[in-house]
Amino acid sequence: MLRTFDVILIGLMIAAAAVTYKIKHDAEKQMAQVSKLERMIADEHDTIDLLKADWSLLTQPNRLQKLVETFQGQLDLQQMEAQQIVNIDELPQPKPASDGFDDVANIITEANAGNVIKTDATLTGSVKKSSAAVPGAKPKGH
Hints:
mainly alpha
């Protein structure tokens, strides 16, 4: 009887040792994966820092001024005028959505009746408007 009990205990000890080894091996695999992910996160942080440094170099005012001077012929940029900067209260409000078909019909009728393009003299942006693009516009300085 003693031998059977000893064999059962030895079997249990071997099973416990196997389970302990498997748990330890799985934990080591998980730790290796965690350290790999930490390295990847650190690499991404380094990449972000590098990109921020590149962005600050690319957006330096001196560099941008040189680019503007170099490509002035192609870009035809102008300096921004003071009246181009407005508060949000000064922006035009959007038209309310039409509630019925009568409003839509009136809009279509008005659009077809006029055939006259109304020009907007509001300056938006820093690209110079050509006088040929706006009918009836007078060139500046005349």
